[in-house]
Amino acid sequence: MTVDKAGISILDTIKAGTLNGAKMVHHEDEFGSLEKGKLADLLVVKGDVASNIYDLTPDNMEVIMKKAISLSGEHCEV
Fold first, then answer.
1. What are phi and psi of 4, to 5 degrees?
2. Full domain range(s) for residue 4
3. Which end of the chain is more exposed for a tag (fewer CB within 10 A), N or C?
């Protein structure tokens, strides 16, 4: 089922995988949103995923970071 057919907004879908997931495990003070002092894995995507969820494709992924390390191996300050 796609987001548009489920009746869930794109932003609510993104929150479900980020902030709401952190809230479910009672760790929203540690991760789940981009804030100073929080842990973050980060995906930078070409396009406007908030307007078009279908922009979220492997071809549009610019940077993928896990624990401040990009998958290309470079350290990144966030």
1. -65, -35
2. 1-34
3. N
DSSP 8-state secondary structure symbol assigned to residue 7:
T
User: Whole-prediction pTM value?
Assistant: 0.63
| Rg of the Cα atoms in the chain | 14
* 77/53 same-domain check: yes
Query: In this structure, are residues 55 and 47 in contact, taking their beta carbons and an 8 Å threshold?
Result: yes
**The two three-digit tokens of residue 7, written as one number:** 């009746």
Claim to verify: residue 27 and residue 46 sit in the same structural domain: no
What DSSP string describes 11-73? Answer: HHHHHHHTHHHHHHTT-TTTSSS--TT----EEEESS-TTT-GGG-SGGGEEEEEETTEETTS
